[in-house]
Design a protein that fits this description.
Strand content of chain A: 25-35%
Number of domains of chain B: 1
Radius of gyration of chain B: 18 Å
Strand order of the largest sheet of chain B: 6-7-8-3-9-10
Number of helices of chain A: 9
Largest sheet of chain A: 6 strands, mixed
Helix content of chain B: 25-40%
Distance between the termini of chain B: 36 Å
Largest interface: A-B, 22 and 24 residues
Structural class of chain B: alpha/beta
CATH class of chain B: Alpha Beta
CATH class of one domain in chain A: Alpha Beta
CATH topology of chain B: Rossmann fold
Number of helices of chain B: 10
Radius of gyration of chain A: 18 Å
Shape of chain B: globular
Strand content of chain B: 25-35%
Number of strands of chain B: 10
Largest sheet of chain B: 6 strands, mixed
Shape of chain A: globular
Strand order of the largest sheet of chain A: 5-6-7-3-8-9
Distance between the termini of chain A: 34 Å
Oligomer: heterodimer
Helix content of chain A: 25-40%
Order of helices and strands of chain B: EEEHEEHEHHHHEHEHEEHH
Structural class of chain A: alpha/beta
CATH superfamily of chain B: P-loop containing nucleotide triphosphate hydrolases
Chain lengths: 237, 257
């Protein structure tokens, strides 16, 4: 679906993404693990075309409008929603911007999206602060889906949530992926929850892609010393 | 070593009274690392602050006893309490970025509690600060550097050096690695184990992270809605949980892998 070839992005002297080549296959969840400064967030922004690379290219197959069909769900739903905008409006915004539906059909679509993320329809009238962290994250997901996205970048979507809520949100993401035929790039800073959703796992360090393989292979018998270190350090239950 | 009996903390907010800590009883044994595990809002951090009587309005400690060396911390006059804080029980907080004063050198900050508690001359305090730096594996030559010259993990080491400066018997650590990368986190956890042995410390480690508790703690206290729901040896609580709440948590974690 997304083919990344020899992608490089520099900030002054710093090479944030260094000659990364990688394919995200249609229908898979690719886990992307890296510590701070590894370049994982820069790579995400390059894929969303929020920034331009210095060299290399990204080819999108089956995606016409990148701005509409590639979306991101952020780590902290508290900061990613405008506190003064009601939930319904926040979800409707991408539909309006991309002129996906006539005005008269928007309310029904918002209701359907709320249902999809298992929130009561009355939540459309509420403000973000009236919701719990897990509920706000569901709104973030509904908003990402509102533009009929095919590809979602999940940027640490459960790191800020309690364990019970983590499981609920991850289950919902799994379910939505099957139901809507989505493709995910799941970004994490350690290897502790990444196995739940991922089919394959990529590891980045200092701008480079150092390991990429099947989930089981990476989690059980990583090739790289750094991945082993990361695995040993990731506090797993 | 430290005995907590029936401790309760309330918060008085517009919506009414919140029982943040609701009649908690446990003890910290000499030389152990005790984990206090809880989800957000469970009362674990409030409990940590209450142990040093650091609960501020709108919160209030409403009942209980915290017995250290036969004396109840909750009944101590303020002067005596100041001798306990830092000198006998020290605390390390979550965020090393805000725990340090950016305009003072790390040496000055480590010396401050030494001068305050031990009344020694600056030269001696400086030597003790250098020693504390060595204990956390920072080159004492960096004693005159400022916090911004250190990485996050190194800053947390400085904070730990500050806590160790007066040779406390008990260290309370509240999520000290949450703001750090996992490989750095692993180093800090290893360091805590090491200084525990070296300084004969007993540690209370507060966290929501099950993996850390399993790696680090001899015993664990599980908190939920201000109360202790289960307590015991870490591997027993995690492998054979008795209470429904702990069982549900453990099931969730197994599912997450």
């Amino acid at each position: 679906m997304i083919e990344i070839s020899n992608l490089t992005k520099k900030y002054g002297e710093l090479v944030a993404v260094n000659d990364v080549s990688l394919t995200i296959k249609q229908g898979e969840t690719l886990g992307l693990v890296g510590e701070s400064g590894s370049g994982k967030s820069t790579l995400a922004r390059l894929i969303l075309k929020l920034i331009e690379p210095d060299s290399g290219r990204i080819d999108y197959q089956g995606i016409g409008n990148i701005r509409r069909e590639c979306q991101i769900v952020f780590q902290d739903p508290q900061n990613s929603l405008n506190p003064r905008i009601r939930v319904g409006e926040a979800i409707a915004e991408p539909i309006v911007i991309h002129r996906l539906l006539p005005k008269s059909a928007i309310n029904d679509r918002v209701a359907a999206l709320l249902e999809m993320v298992k929130l009561p329809i009355v939540y459309a009238k509420r403000f973000p602060h009236e919701l719990s962290g897990g509920e706000r994250q569901r709104v973030g997901i509904a908003r990402a889906l509102a533009s009929e996205a095919k590809f979602l970048i999940l940027d640490e979507p459960v790191s800020a949530l309690d364990v019970f809520i983590q499981v609920e949100v991850l289950k919902l993401l799994k379910e939505l992926k099957a139901r809507l035929g989505l493709t995910y790039l799941f970004i994490a800073h350690d290897l502790s929850v990444i196995g739940y959703l991922s089919d394959r796992i990529a590891v980045m360090k200092e701008g480079r892609l150092i390991e990429l393989g099947d989930k089981k292979a990476v989690l059980i018998s990583p090739r790289e010393e750094y991945t082993r270190k990361l695995l040993a350090a990731s506090p797993r239950f | 070593m430290l005995e907590v009996r029936n401790l309760s903390v309330n918060y008085y907010v517009d919506e009414g009274t919140v029982n943040a800590v609701a009649g908690v009883t446990f003890n910290l044994k000499e030389g152990e690392i005790l984990g206090i595990l809880g989800e957000s809002g469970s009362g674990k951090s409030t409990l940590g602050f209450a142990l040093l009587r650091l609960v501020d309005r709108p919160g209030e400690i409403v009942s209980g006893e915290i017995i250290l060396n036969g004396l109840d911390i909750l009944l101590m006059p303020e002067r005596e309490l100041r001798r306990v804080r830092g000198a006998q029980i020290a605390m390390v907080f979550q965020d090393p970025f805000t725990a340090l004063n950016p305009v003072l050198t790390i040496g000055e900050q480590i010396m401050e509690p030494i001068v305050l508690h031990q009344g020694v001359k600056r030269g001696e305090a400086r030597a003790k600060a250098a020693e504390a730096l060595r204990a956390v594996k920072i080159d004492p030559a960096r004693i005159d550097d400022y916090p911004h010259q250190f990485s996050g993990g190194m800053r947390q080491r400085v904070v730990i050096a500050m806590a160790l400066a007066c040779r406390p018997k008990i260290l309370i650590a509240d999520e000290p690695t949450t703001a750090l990368d996992v490989t750095i986190q692993a180093e800090i956890l290893a360091l805590l184990r090491e200084i525990k042995n070296q300084f004969n410390l007993s540690i209370i480690y507060i966290t929501h992270n099950f993996g850390i508790i399993r790696q680090l703690c001899d015993r664990v206290v599980v908190m939920h809605r201000g109360a202790i729901v289960e307590e015991g040896k870490t591997h027993l609580v995690f492998d054979q949980p008795k209470e429904p709440y702990t069982k549900k948590l453990v099931d969730c974690l197994r599912e997450l892998g």
